UniProtKB/TrEMBL annotation:
Its main location: secreted. The lineage of its organism: Bacteria, Bacillati, Bacillota, Bacilli, Bacillales. It is found in: Secreted. This is Collagen-like protein. Signal peptide: none annotated. Residues 164-205 are annotated as: Disordered.
Length: 367
């Protein structure tokens, strides 16, 4: 029997509960099945829904989610995660964390959805609950997104039960008694008895809270980076649209974390390729040392107006570690500079659309 641990995963109650979230609302305008779905705000907003569910050690699951975007704008990047916790809400490990890059989700205006299937690892010893997170990450100019028919199914429910034993054959004629032989090996184990009835569902655990340590800073002006000055600037670090919480300290070029833990780190740059400057690469430096898992870059053509370089990684950080995003330019390269753009020029109109030249965000996931 398939048991969905998520309650109201199709949102047919017309409300989010017992999910909670940010920049998320139940709507009846679009749905994968039934009448309702959840709409997550696009663009530079961080939007997510999450729900705690009861879990026992050793259990594993299949996460199923239906996703679609609204309109012709590019779909945003999305992260799906299942995190395990004990009764005291101490983080024990990841059952699942997977990312869907920007531009991979279909347009619901054409009645098109994509259905994601992902299997978790078994819950570790001490697990009593899991946090299921569906997170739309910020991307300037990206479309709103719809979520529907979310399920967390017991993986064991996919295995059939043991069939009945076949009938015993007829007893043969008894032969003469032979000499007593040596004691043989133990015989095989008998057939498994019938499975007992499923016990009653225990009470729902208390709703957990999202990370209290996170930040998002950005820059809204052109930038010229070089071998001499490779550090990316975030001139809006103290503006109302930059979010800094939980004791993180922000400057125009860095973020410093207040406590140790595992952090999700996401950076975006908007590269302006021109003749002689058609390559770019970046990485996150922690206390002046490059963390290899954060490297990313692009090679573009000179007639492209803007290209995007980005990376998502999970880093283990210590208290008071400082993060900087820097351009990676080899000393022997004939290209000494990298330009970042803060505007898009629409063809045929000469109209300039302001964008952000760079952004950096971190979220503390757990110890």
């Amino acid at each position: 029997m398939f048991v969905n641990r998520l309650i109201n995963g199709s949102f047919e109650t017309g409300s989010l509960s017992p999910f909670n979230g940010i920049n998320a609302v139940v709507v009846s305008s679009n749905s994968h099945s039934g009448y309702f779905s959840v709409r997550l705000t696009g663009g530079t907003a961080n939007a997510f829904i999450q729900q705690f569910v009861p879990v026992a050690a050793g259990e594993s699951f299949e996460l199923i989610v239906s996703l679609a975007k609204l309109g012709a704008a590019v779909s945003p990047p999305v992260t799906l995660a299942v995190n395990y916790y004990n009764a005291a809400f101490a983080f024990l490990g990841y059952g699942l964390i997977t990312s869907i890059p920007a531009g991979r989700i279909p347009d619901n205006n054409e009645a098109d959805w994509t259905v994601i299937y992902q299997t978790t690892s078994p819950a570790p010893a001490g697990t009593t609950q899991a946090l299921v997170l569906i997170n739309k990450l910020p991307l300037s100019g990206s479309a709103d997104m719809f979520v529907d028919d979310a399920s967390l199914l017991d993986a064991a429910g996919l295995r059939g039960g043991t069939g009945p034993a076949g009938p015993a054959g007829a007893t043969g004629v008894t032969g003469p008694t032979g000499a007593t032989g040596a004691t043989g090996d133990p015989g095989p184990m008998g057939a498994t008895g019938a499975t007992g009835a499923t016990g009653s569902t225990g009470p729902q655990g208390q709703t957990g809270t999202f990370s209290q340590v996170y930040a998002n800073i950005f820059d809204n002006a052109d930038q010229a980076l070089s071998v001499i000055q490779p550090t990316v600037r975030f001139n809006q670090f103290n503006s109302p649209d930059s979010i800094i919480a939980g004791g993180i300290v922000a400057t125009a070029t860095s973020l410093t974390v207040p406590v140790a833990g595992d952090y999700a780190v996401l950076w975006l740059t908007f590269f302006l390729p021109v003749a002689g400057q058609q390559h770019c690469a970046f990485g996150v430096f922690v206390n002046g040392t490059l963390r290899d898992s954060t490297r990313s870059g692009v090679a573009a053509f000179a007639d492209q107006e803007i290209d995007t370089a980005s990376s998502v990684a999970i880093l283990s950080l210590n208290a008071n570690d400082t993060l900087e995003l820097r351009a990676l330019i080899p000393d022997e390269s004939t290209q000494d500079n990298i330009d970042l753009s803060a505007e898009v020029v629409y063809p045929g109109t000469g109209t300039n659309q302001p964008i952000n030249s760079a952004s950096l965000r971190i979220i503390r996931l757990g110890p």
